[in-house]
Design a protein that fits this description.
With 110 residues, this protein is mainly beta. It has one domain. The chain is 15% helix and 58% strand. It contains two helices and three strands. Strands 1-2-3 form a three-stranded antiparallel beta sheet. A hairpin with a 5-residue loop joins β1 (12-39) and β2 (45-72).
């Protein structure tokens, strides 16, 4: 990291990785049927009508883990942490765990 810092002319180098793994898939299916029978006065079937509907929903969940390392220009590591998203998300976003790590690093300022 020292050579990279010298080439770039910077005081800190931030190195990070994002790992996404498919966790599990959820699915939901709902079906509804409705049949209506009309009878005449002699109790004979006069009319039958049927209505049905169905719906389904599926979502792929992801486990997202972010690792963050910060090095100084003298090759000293001043921060090394990783964080996994608390809830498996459906879009695979890494913003929440990255923000969590950045707010706890020594370079963070409000």
């Amino acid at each position: 990291m020292k050579n990279l810092g010298d080439i770039l002319g910077v005081e800190y180098i931030i190195d990070g990785t994002v790992a996404q793994n498919k966790a599990y898939q959820t699915s939901y299916t709902s079906t509804s049927d409705n049949t209506s029978v009309k009878r005449d006065d002699d109790d004979k079937i006069k009319k039958v009508s049927t209505y049905g509907s169905s719906s389904s929903n599926a979502a792929q969940r992801f486990d997202v883990r972010v690792s963050l390392q910060i090095y100084m220009d003298n090759n000293a590591s001043i921060y090394n942490a990783n964080h996994q998203a608390l809830f498996s998300n459906t879009d695979g976003s890494y913003g929440a765990p990255l923000e969590y790590l950045l707010k706890r690093c020594p370079l963070y300022r409000k």
